[in-house]
Records
---
Amino acid sequence: MSRPKGGVGGSGGGLMSWLTTTDHKRIGLLYFYTAFAFFLIGGLDALVIRAQLAQPDGHLVSAETYNQLFTMHGTTMIFLALMPLSASFFNYIVPLQIGARDVAFPRLNAFSYWVFLFGGLLMNASWVAGPLFHAGQLNVAPDAGWFGYANLTSRQYSPGPNIDFWMFGLQILGVSSLAAGFNFIVTILNMRAPGMRMMRLPVFCWMTLVTSFLIITAFPVVTVALVLLMFDRFFGTHFYLTSAGGDPVLWQHLFWLFGHPEVYILILPAMGIVSEVLPTFARKPLFGYTVVVYSGVLIGFMGWGVWSHHMFAVGLGPIADSVFAATTMLIAVPTGVKIFNWLATLWGGQLRFTSAMLFALGFIALFTIGGLSGITHAAPPADLQQTDTYYVVAHLHYVLFGGTVFGLFAGMYYWWPKMTGRLLSEPLGRWHFALMFVGMNLAFFPMHLIGLLGMPRRIYTYSPELGVATLNLVSSVGAFLIGVSVLVFIWNVWRTRTRGQLAGNDPWGGATLEWTIASPPPVHNFDVIPTVASRLPRWTKTQVKAIPEGAELAEFPVPSGSIWPLVTALGLPILALAPLSHTLPLVFVGAAIVLLGIYRWAFEPPPLEG
Amino acid sequence: MPSHRRWLLPLPLLSAAIAACGGPFPQSTLRPRSDFAGAIDVLFTDIFWWAVLVFVLVEGVLLFIIIRHRRREGAPTPRPTHGHTVLEIAWTLAPALVLVFIAVPTMRTIFATQAEAPAGALRVAVVGHQWWWEYRYPDLGVVTANELYLPAGRPVAFELTSADVIHSFWAPGLGGKRDVIPGRTNRLVLRPDSVDTFLGQCAEFCGASHANMRLRVMVVSDLAFQAWVRQQRASAALVPRGSVAEQGEQAFRRFGCIGCHTMGTMSNALVGPNLTHLGSRTTIAGGLFPNDSAHLARWLADPPGEKPGSIMPNMHVPPADLATLIAFLRSMR
């Protein structure tokens, strides 16, 4: 089957075809490359942080710059790297796995991407925007932590534009996430191929669905919190200020009510990827499919009932502490059940240690450690010694790096051939894995001890008296080893462009629908929408039937590209620049662009070609 | 390494690292020296061993599978197993059962460590400031900063609040942290059990110099505590006529120090720490530097340079005045 050429769906060459594309595969690639670039920026933040902390009383960067670095490291990794990297797989893989030609709302999908790009650029522009605000220094990046606790974020204690960049950046990124969340819910519920019943959905699609529901329910909460903050900073309200009866703890409740579901927004997609990779390379179906799916759904629900475990030191009283301790411990049960089912999937299999498989196995090994350290601070009294120390930094990186990042890399090695048509080099992949696995443990395991020995988080320097200098040095060495491993991956991607082995339809012997079609798939994905008769269509006798050579194919509509999602998205950062720079006319410019974009979008000719 | 922490030894890399960086870890959570810290330590050790058990089981099974079930040439396609109801029930109940063994002592410890203060407890009000600690002993009429004195063996009832943003009061040897929140009064009760000096620091990010908001707790014998209270309650030291210190006293007025600091009967401003007995403290600038002439000189010459974001401005004190100022401050015992 040959790849269709030409302007269909913005699929040709040239810049305009990318700016106007509504093809979920191209948008998936845009998400991937953009998010990976932000992953590198967030990684550089981390390396400067580790260089500063390699020795006590370090002074590589100033206190102010350091505070910006750790704030932007967290914000960038969560909102600009890990979430959109997951989104790149939602985009590229979900329609292929459910047997659809695109997502439900292709132009909304493009809009999500452009809003994400512009929001990320706005937030990172703060690194060099100092001169515009006469700040006396180049960098005016957000500096109150990714959690931005009130009342430090009030105008009184943070007078500069730093917090404004963060506040508006996050509101814009929320728009992107919400649009994507709705899109994938509708796509998965409505666009499934005939016979693709809910309980035949690949686990990755299930986890995408749960994640999307979490996104559309959690992001409104943080949006409310940010709008209240905006009112406090710009219009003199006192939602978070005690001076007129407000309460800074209100922010903490709102933020963590969003923030804990956000943790599951970050980990569930990786769990979905691992649930695809393990069966393929064990050559065995996923053990306990129903249980794995339901435990994912249960985690999604229970994720809403645990937020105050981020607040045990606030002094909410013994009753609240006990309740949130109990709910937090309970959530370990469905999480543990997933791990046991993955182990049972591997048991008795024929394990092929491809790079994707290594990262998936690494996920199990490392995420388990993160889960166990999580249990130690589910107990509020123990947490009082651990919270806000490096012990928690260790814990969260075992979950989000050992878990999410390893899961995402498993997905990259697994689906790269589908997305580009070429296989990443396996020897380089093994080097990447080995360096990252060793570096990761070297960087983050000592942090457990650093924290237990009394070093708090978010400090730009520490006293040699604490006795944690050597452990910190080891940790920094590990961080740079991770950096080297990422360079190996980039080299792998680069050489694969031209020298990578051609993949064919199905290099791994996968069980799901994406492996029935060409790599990369044609713009319309499926010549004929497949009829699905089992959960593992390619591993069962009732496979999808190949189309006989030379058969006449019916014409079908493919949406043409559109520039208006990009235009609409462009209006949002301009709207944000108005309050940022205290320039009222910009409000009208931004609003006009948004309205024009929506108007033209709404009245575009029907998206049919051919 | 304390003997009851032998569990660290099986981890050779870590014990080597520990040995390499020496000790004695004055800010460690693993050396509990109060009833509160002790209760936490018992609970943490309990949970830690459960975690080790699960860790060994899961990682052990994973390693076994990786070795035993790796692909062999010519092996047939594995038997597809889709699930097993009894197994699923078993591995749902097993972790739930383990969690009961963790949850029960957890709940007990929560209520035990948040109980009302016993009668006769020493009351201490802690006020967090960007970036220093104010301590008030309301029943003793003592106000001091950054260095907290407590008698060993007597329960202490802390009342914690903040003058500006959220901080968190934490001296790990004496127990867990408690947030210090504007508009709220938080409580913390503990009984230090042995004479020692503990390091601590602010644990909630509170702005530019969060890293520099340090503290020390001197747990002393009851007698030593009484002596310290007498010293702190005494009126400010007398400055001899015509001495260098007296010139420093005038400089203290002239450069506006009295606008922010309480100093004996000379001034009663509350913006910065009470300096009436500064000479009796071992550290300055929020526990950042030792209290000696050299460090005082550096500090007074450029506070924001030494402590980023410091609200205390650079008063551009000429070197001659600086020397007299230091003589005056060091005489204020």
Note: Chain B touches chain A through 96 residues (CB under 8 Å).
---
Amino acid sequence: MTTTTADTRTAAPLVRLTDAGKNYGNIIALQGVTLDVGASEVTCVLGDNGAGKSTLIKIIAGLHQHTHGTYEVEGESVHFASPRAALDRGIATVYQDLAVVPLMPVWRNFFLGNEVRKGPAMDIAAMRKMAKQELLDMGIDLRDVDQPIGTLSGGERQCVAIARAVHFGARVLILDEPTAALGVKQSGVVLRYIIQAKERGLGVIFITHNPHHAYPVGDRFLILKRGRSLGYWKKNEVSMGELTGLMAGGSELEELTHELEEAGAEASALREVAQVFEQEVAELHVGGHGTPPSGNTEARGDPTQP
Amino acid sequence: MSQTVDVGTPPAPARDERVARKSPLARLMTRPEIGALAGAIVIYLIFFIVAPPFRDANSLASVLYVSSTYGIPAVAVALLMIGGEFDLSAGVAVTSSALVASMLSYQFSANMFVGVLVALVVSLVIGFINGYLVVKTGIPSFLVTLGTFFMLRGLNLAITKIVTGNVGTNDVSNIQGFGAAKAVFASEFKVGSVSIRITLLWWILFVLIATWVLVRTHIGNWIFAVGGSAPSSRAVGVPVNKVKIGLFMTVGFMAWFTGMHILFAFNTVQSGLGLGNEFIYIVAAVVGGCLLTGGYGSVIGAAIGAFIFGMANQGIVYAGWNPDWFYFFLGALLLGAILLNNFIRLRAEASR
């Protein structure tokens, strides 16, 4: 496995951090992070709790400013004063817990802050129609965009928030742990959505601590640990197992792998039963025994590849 | 951990189960006004049956008049509550506004409309201060406005005593411009044999405007949003602080209007007036389906809530019942409405 970051850079990507860092007083929260996000690319930022993921997205999203290195948007060095300033450059952030207002209808949420106006009033019919169509384009078919968004599942709510950012001209999407609170199936919905955003030409920064979610959708991977970058790879330079290993850290992982492989035998047996079952009773959902801990995701039905 | 709500799969096979999930009745049940409307019909029928004088058209006009004097401030209180905040100072702010207009015009022998306009500015400033303190300090509006409530109550009495040497103001009916002001704020007209107070028309107008703003404009969208989740609203660029301050100032405006009505209906103002009315505005809003926690409700509901209050207030008299029971009735109504609202909200937020 190569740990170099050279030769992966293109000319003036949408977002580029070079050796960026952030100090809070004398505390070094983030140090030496180099990152490129191009159009139609998913860059995954992986790291355990406290690794500096939040600090990194806050810098990119304009909530905080970097104290070291450079931050460029399309080749131009920037220091965003507010999230609004970042938004104006097409950098939108979807926070896990701040995505939507649960009691409001889907369409009102979708256009919140960007209402379509017709004279002094809103063009409600157009907004309903656009929200429905935009969600349909992204694979969410809602019978009724008037239902409170709180009645949707967690995954769907994340998807509406993402669709909203896409619709309002985001070119770089920052997704803050969008799958963290979701079940397996729901995560699959969000991951599929990330692919859709990518296919539409957006650059996506996908923050997660789950390599099983990151690897299938990612093009590049940045691993953070204790505020430092452990490395930055293209997909063909690193394997799923290596990613997991780097996140957990060498020797601890070997033990863990050993344990998991034993458990994995059982899990694959279960999987066979499940597959047979699924074929016979297509409408029943037999999945949901958790992520099989064997480490080879390709063998498992990858929810993101139709 | 089977997920029952799976709409994630692209173009949808699961249509049937979703249709079944929401019957027309359930949809009707989620309207915020529905509980209040049902309650209003029941209460109207009860008084119609037990109190013969209640059936008279003039009685209905007087019920509507009483309803309008509480319903006008309740319009703004409902908007504020949907925006996630309270205003306990609204009741005494009505009196403050009337006192300012009355004393200013009387003491300076100024045209009545000078007092009216100064009172408007004072009321808007009170609203602004309430809102500014709430959004800048992050202290719950319940506490902030409790503070301003006591301060206004003290100011009303103290300043009135200093200026007039009395607890009430002098009669302003001889001041220039009184007639015109009375025509705007406190006149009556006849429809057939029924005498209608102009506040009823103003009330209807305010309810219509507020409903239109709330449901049809982007401002209304923002009001729902800041009440439903202020951080989420801020994250998508809604000016949360401006919306909240604007709502407090709307309460100030309606308090001013009600204060002007009281002044021109009675010619004098007692400085102790208005105490406790803030709760009646809140009751009207809550009975009308506004959630105390914000983000949900309706101005029409608050109007129905005020109408229920007016019916109960007058109906007990027409029925010859002991009016001592009135507040017990009001409290029971409030509890019932809160239980109903809780139930509705749980439904709306189901499957989170």
Note: The domain at 34-338 of chain B is CATH 1.10.3470 (ABC transporter involved in vitamin B12 uptake, BtuC).
